[in-house]
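Let's do one together. I've listed all components of the complex below, 584 residues spread over two lines.
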Amino acid sequence: MSKHLLFRHLDTPNLNQIATYKKQGGFAGFKKAVTTLQPAEVIDLVKASGLRGRGGAGFPTGMKWSFLPNNLWPHYVVANADESEPGTFKDRELLESNPFQFLEGLAIASYAVQAHDAYVYLRGEFWQQAEFLDNCIAEMKKSGFLGNKLFGTEYSLNIHTHLGAGAYICGEETALLESIEGKLGQPRLRPPFPAVEGLYSRPTVINNVETLANLPFILENGSSKFREYGTEKSPGVKIFSLSGNVNKPGNYELPLGTTFRELIFTHGGGVPEGRKIKAIMPAGASSSLILANDQALDTPMDYESVPSLGAQLGSASVIIVDDSVSMDWLVNKTVHFFKHESCGKCTPCREGTFWMAHLTEKVLKPNHTKEDVQLLNIVARQIQNKCLCALGEFSIMAVMSAIEKFPEDFAVSNGR
Amino acid sequence: MNQIADKYSREIVEILAKYPADRKQSAVMPLLHLVQRDFGFISNHSIKDISEILDMSSTEVASVVGFYTLYQDHPEGKYRFQICTDLPCALREADQFLKDLCKALDIQPGGTTKDGLVTVEQVMCLAACDKAPMFQVQGREGISYYENQTVVSAMEVINNLKEKEKTA
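Okay, and this is what the predicted structure of the assembly comes out as:
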């Protein structure tokens, strides 16, 4: 059996060719679902596996599916391949190197909620990946894994790709739906939630690429086999995107609950030039900063443990920041990102990110005052809990935690 | 006469088939991608053509063009070199790379080379954080990524494009 659950291309060359994928037992999970299980049984199986969404929120996948009402049709499934969080580059590797496992997972999710059309929303920059995925979809059709009356049953399914065009906000699920509908990618007011009123106002499931790629294994091997990986509350493996000041940045598939230390030192080769780690951002630019002491380094990376450090696991995009980096520079970077990507719909985020960017610029200058830093913190607090979606909330995480945990980097004496 | 409808009749049928028949507006982004790739930018004329094909107002189409960064409303260099300088890339010297490449091309960030071939832009995260410095090139062939770059390797990419333009 393959050493990896998701990154099986590391064990099997050419896994992105349908012949190789089939030879490795590919599509058995989808076939098993369609030919031997009722849709509700598939949902129950995924619930029992404990699989949680890998896009960032960590919501239980099977439970998400069970929210779709059965009196409103058609249902849709949308795969979120808008991967745009600074520090996240895991879905891209899956799409390029193990696309059929992801597509099979999407097909399984579609059967579970009886959707006959599924969409893959890819960020616009994934132009080549979208072309490649279109070819993969065509090959699945040719081989009888997509199309009408699959495996001799009444079930039919088609998968379509939809390219975004450069907007981080479209990773937010309701903005993503707006974008497929041909509108500006701006989040919707909730409720109603997408499970009830999603794409084209129909019940819709939106799952991350990595989440979906877990499903073939669960269908084939059962939920208890899946639970042999990871922890009790965070079962399974996770792809950790490791970046920043580290010797071997890259994607690493590891069981949930692996410690930061193991990821950074055993797999990532430690920090260049023997420098010390100053901070860790476990959820990309959206992350609060973790002070990199021994206790933090020995903390297991799972959905329950990371919050004890004042942060979230999120999409597990672990950015390593060494002691050569000053935090006033770092938050200027993250704030500019969020300012640029704010969709402009709600005032706290639109105005707040603008003013934070203005202030982080000011704080970087040698003649800044204590009041500038205080004001930055006040603006961040005024954004907190007032935004329409998570983007605005994310924009303040690095700012507030940096000022709190690394005050010396914002001191007036820290002029450059 | 609708230039886009004539030129892309086959593609338009294929694109519309992806979405429910009464949801033509969903095709606006794919159609804009066709135009962006073909002309290097999206003109008011193209906006009008697309709005006619999809039964949308020109304003609605124009607002989509304005919202998404990969659609441009004015022509720049034939190839747009878009360098990510977000945090993870910046921790791997992407800011310096941007500066050095611009210097080698004798332009400012956002500027275009005198021959009109290359525009260098600073962009947000491109999901290639482990392989910085990196950039994508947006041009006639769509979008392609170049990772683990140096100024020397980037200039090589540019020189190859120059050669290609000469022979074309």
